[in-house]
Each structure stands twice: as structure tokens, then as C-alpha cells.
């Protein structure tokens, strides 16, 4: 064991170029895996510290999740599993919960009503608060933090408010100032009667406090409340009083989740993103490492063959290469994994700035992601090395020596069989994609499918390389020296060509897939909306929304035949998460056409629902649809219509009056207008603008098809890692050809002809990588597009594709010609003498 380790260390010291290349690949792989693991751990174990509820020892909220039970019958046993998913809006507590809490002796119960409220200046600009949002509350809830007055008095009448000190400073308000505020109704003028300062830091929202009576009206949920803070009694007494209800009792850091219910969804999102990105990262790293170690073993064929010839057993050769990989893996993965934690912090910051994750979710910096990344990376290195050494360690020593001079022509049966199995699996997964109709389900399967195709291409690479050379060799013969030599060399060294092709194919295939998945959805949504939106004008809001009185004013305007308010939410139909759009009844046929396939939107009224064909999933008109609305309310609706344009108008359509009652913000997000509207009609209303239908179409990218921040981060990780792998592999392959290129010069080839040889070989590599990576991506994108849009033609943006290919060409050219320039400056005769024969 000790001798083998010493031999491994000695071998690594003598192969500095190969070691540096493998080290960088392992280092970046460990950093990528650790960063994804840290995101995953944050999603699973992350906590959210309470801010506004920090002063309340016990917080009671409604259940902010939807639950269902899965029952499995297998081998005579029945297994049940409960799954939970976060709601889109806040679930409210019924008044009966407050009654129970007030019966607890010695308990001080403080209700909290939370609702949107924003301050505006003049008739246009809304002032963002801490963390980018401003929230309204009843004054009694101030003691949950607690806030204390630093000036003025509490609000006791309508149109009176207390603002927190940070917001007062940002807006220049003081006691006695008058300011505009819009909450869940029409905007109005309010008098600032007090300034309040929190005793605990509140960094993710600014508070506006209303009188308790007015807050109840603005909250728009009747006697229900957002939460109760309970003082003076133990948590177990609170739990006992609420036994038999769905109310949740939170203490400690759980109060943070109660205060920020969106954090639950964010943690689930981080879990899925971290898992998907981490799993993809592991597969990508495995694919790259197998290629790098395969190339390294090919270049050491003579050395390993000599070891076999002097008596080394196959097991000893495998152990030697395995020990080398183990030492190199530990040396590279440990610092790489440590770098993964700050990389995860940077990724989390990017998600927060883009709004994909709230700032309340802090990164968990535990040891598990680091340890896991080191373990996975080292294991991948050892497995990749032993796979690469399999052939050389099994054949007879004489055969090994022969193959060290001339590459074996036939590809091994095991490798071909594995490649065909991967291709079959990739085809099956691509076929499954055509039946997946939701983005969360389809996206990870898309990445898996393209990776399987690339694994298959890597395994079948020598065969594909020979086929590519047979085709590309025809134009290459136009160059009598460089082209001819490149064709002959590539035929004899098809394994080397396949090894350097793999990371380039990965770069092109994965990046294309990640970029064109959201592009396909966005393009399809824009196309459907363009065909189905008949509104001449759209009134949209940059604040809380469009108030009812504006809708009424638009309907009374001369020349306007229809003004239809719309709002959007997310609901659960059974176990399926679906987008929902609430639409006004009157005139809807004049402003939108979702391409109804059965039934009629005229029948859409309270107690009914319309669904896209894909969301309906076999349901028929008149069927009862069981729904969990955004605030957790369970309801049943009768299906009255189905339609095709679900990407544009949502998976489900509900009456506007139905959906708004179950949202945090009951105002319309926009009003679709048929007829001429003078923009001055909304000039006196803050935050409103009148757009043309074309301008509204251009904003479809903000409808949520894909997450730009996640896509950007994923693309950066894949591009950086694939680029490092490409540079390592091509540079290693070029530097190992020192003797070969020097011999060419000694027999009469000029430096220009040698460069011509390298250019033609690089052209073969690039063409094969573009065909393999681009082909894999296109097949997978066709399956994704079929399932998600109904069309088998994905959206490929030519400019983006050209930039991607140019980037791949530039990366490959630098990795090839910079090492080549170094080699060509050396003395050819001395190089041949040094390298030996």
C-alpha cells in the first residue's frame, strides 16, 4: 500500500502538465458541487430569523401549505406518505381561533392584520421600503416587534397612519405631514400622526400602521387575521387550546417562517434548484473527468505497457492509477469545496437581487456540503481513472506495447454496449418529455435527457469521430499537406479526437438547452397572447394594482365597449400546481380569445372554472374540479369551458370576483380595454399607465416562464466548468504531441504546414462537437416543446446560438494554438532526442 502510494506520487511529480489540467478540473468540479450542495442544505435546514414578530414569544398562524397523502400498495403492504407544498398567498386565521386563544387565562393575545400598502409622491412614483416592500398593519400589532413611538401618537381614526422611522426618513415625512397611500382600495390622502422605531432590526419590510378599525377594512378578510402574538403563557398551553384546529404554533426561529410565509416556498425552490443543479453538476463532472483521465491514460500507454511487460499485474496497474486519482482528487477537491461556500453565497445573492429568493432566507454554511463535495469529487476521480485504465490493465503486455505506438482500431464491446444503452435511455427520456406539461416537471428531465445523449456520444465517440472524419475528410483533401495529415492522423487517433470533443459538446449541448428552454416557452406564450389578445389598450399598474373605481370609470368612458379586470395567482388542482387568471365577466369575448375548444366563457361565473386543454387532462364539461386556492381555501368548481392558449392566459380561468377574495392583494393587476382610451384618464391615479396591446405583449417575458436568474447562474456554472475542461483537455492533448510535431518538422514540414494540420484537426473537433452537442440539444428541445407548447419546433435564437458557437471556437482555438506556439518554438531535434523513441 505504501509503495503504491509512493509510486503514484512519483508519477504525478513527473507529469506536471497533465496534473495541472486534472487538478483544475477536479477543483472546479468540487466548487460547483459544494455550491449546489450549500443551496440544497439551505433549502432543507435553513432558518428564517423573525423580525417584526421578534418581540412575541409565541406566534399563531394558519397552515401556509397544501397537503395530500399518497398511498402505495406493494407486496401486500400499504404505505402512506404525506406531501406538502407552499401556498401562493397568505392563509388567514378564522375568528374562532382568536376566541380560543382569549379563553387562555393570563394570556395576552395580539392580532396582526397584514396587507399591501404603499406610499406615493404626487400622482406617480411609489416609494419602496426596506427590502423593496412596504406593508400595512393594524396599530395593535406594533407591540409584536415591538415598535415604540419616537414622535406623535397612535392612529385612532380613518385616514391616520404611523410610519416607521426608516420610511419617514426616505420620504421626508414628519408628524403632521400629509401623504398619498394606496392599499387594497382606491388611493387616498393620509395624515402622519406618529413615527415609530422598532427595538429589533426590521430589514425586509417597512411598516405603515393604521387604526385597528381601518386596518380590518383594508385587510379585506372580514374578521380573519394574519396571525396572533401570544404573551404571558407557555407554548404548550397555546397548543392545547388550539388542538383540533389547523392553526400552527411557532416559537423560536419558526416565528420567522410564520412572519415570512413566502420563505417556505423559497426554501422548497432552493431545495429543488440545488438538487437539480447539484445532480446535473455531478453528472457533468463525471462526464468531463472520464474524458480527461481517458486522454491521460492514452498518453501514458507506453509507460503503462512497460509496467505490464516487466511484471506488473492488471490489478497493480489499476491500483496505481486509482491511487494517483485519489491523491490528486483530495488535493484538488478540498480547496475547491471550500471555495464552494463563497460561490454559494454569490449565487444566493444573485437569486435575491433577481427576486427568485427573498432576502430573509440566509445561506446555511454547514460542513456537510464541503464534505459531500470532497467525497463525490474524489469518488468521481477514482471511478473515472479506473474506467480509463480498464483496457490497458487487462490486455497482454505485448498488445499494450503495440497499442502504445498505434491506437487500436476496434472499439471495445463493453463501451459500445454502454453507449447504446445510454442512447436508448436518452431516447426514452426524450419521449417522456413529450408527455410532461408543467415546467417544474419538464425542466429537470430535459437536463437529464441531454446529459444522457452526451454520455452516449462520449462512449461512442471513436465511432462518431471516424464517421465525422470520413465526411469532413473530403474538403480537407483540398489542403494537400495540412488537410491530408489531419485526416490520416484523426483516423488513427479517433479516441483522442473523441476525448477532446466531449467537453466541447458538453459546452454547446448543455448551454443551448439551458438557454433555449425558457426561450421556447416565452416565444410560445408571446405567440399565443399575440393571437388571443384583442384589447386595444391595457391599463397596468406599477403599485398595488388597479382600483375598482378606475375600472368603473373606464367602462363609463365614451368609445369604450369593454373594460375587463384581470388578476393572477397560483392554485392547486388536486396535486398539480396551476397558474390561474381571474377575469371579469362583462365583455371578456371582446378583449381576449383563449381559443375555446369546448363550452363557453360566457358560462364562467361564481362556482365555475375554465381550464386549458393540457390542464384539463381528460376532464369533460360538467365535471367537478377540486381546487385549493392561493390562500388554502378548498373549493369545488364545475368545468364550463376548455381552451388551447394556456401559456398566454393561464392553466385555469376563474371569475375575477372569485379569485380576488383569496389573494393578498385583491386589486386588478391590469384592465383589458376595447376601444379608445385617452392616457389622461388615469393621470390622477398613481402608478397607472395606459399601454397599447403591442406594448403589453412585449412585457410577456415577466409572466414567469422560466426563472432568468436561475438560468443565468446555471449557464455561468456550466460555461465556466466546460470551458475549463475544454482548455485542459485540448491543451493536454496538444502538449503531449511535442515529439510528433517535432518529427514532422524534422522530415520537412514547415511551421505553417504544422499549424495547418492543427487547424484542420481543430475543425474536425469543432464540427463533431457542434453536431453532437447541438443535435442532442435539438432532439431534447423538440420533446420539451411538444410537451409544453404542443409544437415540436423549439425556439432557437440565431444570434445567441452564433455567439455560443463563436465562444466555443475561441475557447478551443486558444487551448490548441497557445500550447502549439510554445512547442513550435522549441528545437525539433532536441525535443525528439529528449522524448525518446
Give an account of the 3D structure:
It is a multi-pass membrane protein. One of its GO terms (cellular component) is plasma membrane. This protein has 837 residues and is an alpha+beta fold. The chain has four domains: 1-48 and 260-406, no CATH class; 65-251, no CATH class; 418-524 and 706-837, no CATH class; 543-686, no CATH class. The strands form four sheets. Strands 5, 6, 7, 8, 9, 10, 11, 12 and 13 form a nine-stranded mixed beta sheet that branches. The protein has a six-stranded mixed beta barrel with strand order 17-18-23-20-22-21. The chain is elongated and about 100 Å long.
What is the 3D form? elongated
How far apart, in Å, are the first and last alpha carbons? 32 Å
**What is the CA-based Rg, rounded?**
32 Å
What is the number of E strands? 25
Give the DSSP E fraction (strand runs of 2 or more residues).
15-25%
Nearest-integer average pLDDT:
85
Write down the domain tally: 4
Largest sheet: 9 strands, mixed
Residue runs with pLDDT of under 50 for 5 or more positions: 702-706
Helix content bin = 40-55%
Count, helices: 28
Which structural category do the helix and sheet elements fall into? alpha+beta
Pfam families: FtsX
GO molecular function: transmembrane transporter activity
Keywords: Cell membrane, Membrane, Transmembrane, Transmembrane helix
Protein name: Putative ABC transport system permease protein
Amino acid at each position: 500500500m505504501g509503495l503504491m502510494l509512493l509510486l503514484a506520487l512519483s508519477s504525478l511529480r513527473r507529469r506536471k502538465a497533465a496534473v495541472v489540467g486534472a487538478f483544475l478540473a477536479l477543483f472546479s468540479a468540487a466548487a460547483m458541487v459544494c455550491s449546489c450542495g450549500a443551496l440544497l442544505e439551505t433549502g432543507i435546514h435553513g432558518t428564517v430569523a423573525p423580525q417584526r414578530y421578534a418581540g412575541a414569544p409565541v406566534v399563531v398562524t394558519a397552515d401556509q401549505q397544501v397537503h395530500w397523502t399518497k398511498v402505495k400498495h406493494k407486496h401486500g403492504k400499504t404505505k402512506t406518505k404525506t406531501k406538502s407544498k407552499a401556498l401562493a398567498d397568505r392563509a388567514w386565521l378564522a375568528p374562532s381561533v382568536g376566541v380560543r386563544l382569549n379563553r387562555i387565562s393570563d394570556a395576552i393575545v395580539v392580532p396582526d392584520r397584514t396587507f399591501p400598502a404603499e406610499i406615493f409622491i404626487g400622482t406617480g412614483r411609489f416609494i419602496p421600503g426596506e427590502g423593496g416592500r412596504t406593508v400595512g398593519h393594524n396599530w395593535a400589532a406594533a407591540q409584536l416587534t415591538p415598535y415604540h413611538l419616537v414622535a406623535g401618537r397612535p392612529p385612532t381614526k380613518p385616514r391616520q397612519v404611523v410610519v416607521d422611522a426608516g420610511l419617514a426618513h426616505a420620504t421626508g415625512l414628519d408628524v403632521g405631514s400629509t401623504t398619498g397611500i394606496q392599499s387594497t382600495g382606491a388611493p387616498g390622502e393620509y395624515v402622519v400622526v406618529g413615527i415609530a422605531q422598532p427595538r429589533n432590526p426590521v430589514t425586509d419590510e417597512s411598516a405603515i400602521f393604521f387604526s385597528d378599525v381601518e386596518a380590518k377594512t383594508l385587510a379585506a378578510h372580514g374578521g380573519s387575521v394574519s396571525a396572533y402574538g401570544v404573551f404571558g403563557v407557555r407554548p404548550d398551553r397555546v397548543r392545547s387550546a388550539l388542538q383540533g384546529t389547523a392553526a400552527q404554533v411557532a416559537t423560536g426561529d419558526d416565528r420567522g417562517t410564520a412572519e415570512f410565509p413566502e420563505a417556505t416556498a423559497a426554501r422548497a425552490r432552493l431545495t429543488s434548484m440545488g438538487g437539480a443543479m447539484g445532480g446535473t453538476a455531478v453528472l457533468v463532472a463525471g462526464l468531463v473527468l472520464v474524458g480527461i483521465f481517458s486522454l491521460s491514460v492514452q498518453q501514458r500507454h507506453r509507460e503503462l505497457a512497460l509496467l505490464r511487460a516487466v511484471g506488473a499485474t492488471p490489478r497493480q496497474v489499476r491500483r496505481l492509477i486509482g491511487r494517483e486519482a485519489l491523491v490528486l482528487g483530495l488535493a484538488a477537491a478540498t480547496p475547491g469545496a471550500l471555495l464552494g461556500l463563497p460561490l454559494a453565497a454569490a449565487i444566493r445573492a444573485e437569486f435575491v437581487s433577481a427576486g427568485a429568493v427573498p432576502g430573509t432566507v440566509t445561506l446555511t454554511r454547514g460542513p456537510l456540503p464541503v464534505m459531500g463535495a470532497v467525497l463525490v469529487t474524489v469518488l468521481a476521480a477514482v471511478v473515472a481513472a479506473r474506467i480509463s485504465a480498464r483496457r490497458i490493465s487487462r490486455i497482454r503486455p505485448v498488445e499494450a506495447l503495440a497499442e502504445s505506438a498505434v491506437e487500436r482500431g476496434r472499439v471495445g464491446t463493453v463501451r459500445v454496449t454502454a453507449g447504446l444503452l445510454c442512447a436508448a435511455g436518452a431516447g426514452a427520456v426524450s419521449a417522456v418529455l413529450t408527455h410532461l406539461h408543467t415546467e417544474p416537471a419538464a425542466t429537470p428531465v430535459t437536463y437529464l435527457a441531454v446529459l444522457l445523449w452526451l454520455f452516449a456520444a462520449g462512449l461512442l465517440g471513436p465511432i462518431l469521430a471516424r464517421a465525422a472524419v470520413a465526411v469532413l475528410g473530403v474538403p480537407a483533401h483540398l489542403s494537400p499537406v495540412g488537410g491530408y495529415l489531419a485526416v490520416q492522423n484523426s483516423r488513427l487517433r479517433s479516441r483522442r479526437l473523441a476525448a477532446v470533443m466531449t467537453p466541447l459538446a458538453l459546452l454547446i449541448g448543455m448551454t443551448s438547452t439551458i438557454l433555449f428552454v425558457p426561450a421556447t416557452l416565452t416565444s410560445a406564450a408571446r405567440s399565443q397572447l399575440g393571437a388571443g389578445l384583442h384589447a386595444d389598450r391595457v391599463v397596468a399598474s406599477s403599485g398595488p394594482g388597479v382600483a375598482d373605481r378606475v375600472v368603473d370609470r373606464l367602462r363609463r368612458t365614451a368609445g369604450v365597449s369593454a373594460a375587463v379586470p384581470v388578476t393572477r395567482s397560483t392554485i392547486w388542482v388536486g396535486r398539480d400546481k396551476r397558474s390561474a387568471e381571474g377575469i371579469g365577466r362583462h365583455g371578456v369575448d371582446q378583449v381576449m380569445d383563449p381559443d375555446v375548444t369546448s363550452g363557453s366563457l360566457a358560462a364562467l361565473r361564481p362556482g365555475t372554472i375554465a381550464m386549458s386543454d393540457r390542464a384539463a387532462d381528460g376532464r369533460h364539461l360538467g365535471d367537478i374540479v377540486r381546487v385549493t386556492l392561493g390562500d388554502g381555501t378548498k373549493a369545488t368548481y364545475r368545468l364550463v369551458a376548455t381552451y388551447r392558449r394556456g401559456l398566454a392566459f393561464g392553466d385555469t380561468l376563474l371569475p375575477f370576483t372569485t379569485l380576488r377574495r383569496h389573494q393578498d392583494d385583491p386589486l386588478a393587476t391590469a384592465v383589458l380595454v376595447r376601444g379608445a382610451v385617452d392616457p389622461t384618464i388615469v393621470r390622477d391615479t398613481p402608478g397607472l399607465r395606459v399601454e397599447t396591446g403591442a406594448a403589453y405583449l412585449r412585457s410577456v417575458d415577466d409572466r414567469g416562464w422560466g426563472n432568468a436568474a436561475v438560468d443565468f447562474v446555471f449557464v455561468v456554472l456550466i460555461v465556466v466548468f466546460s470551458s475549463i475542461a475544454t482548455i485542459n483537455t485540448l491543451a493536454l492533448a496538444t502538449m503531449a504531441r511535442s515529439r510528433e510535431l517535432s518529427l514532422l518538422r524534422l522530415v520537412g514540414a514547415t511551421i505553417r504546414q504544422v499549424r495547418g494540420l492543427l487547424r484542420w484537426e481543430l475543425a474536425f473537433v469543432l464540427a463533431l462537437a457542434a453536431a453532437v452537442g447541438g443535435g442532442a440539444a435539438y432532439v431534447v428541445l423538440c420533446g420539451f416543446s411538444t410537451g409544453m407548447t404542443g409544437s415540436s419546433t423549439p425556439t432557437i435564437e440565431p444570434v445567441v446560438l452564433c455567439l455560443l458557437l463563436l465562444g466555443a471556437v475561441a475557447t478551443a482555438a486558444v487551448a490548441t494554438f497557445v500550447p502549439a506556439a510554445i512547442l513550435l518554438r522549441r528545437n525539433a531535434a532536441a525535443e525528439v532526442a529528449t522524448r525518446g523513441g
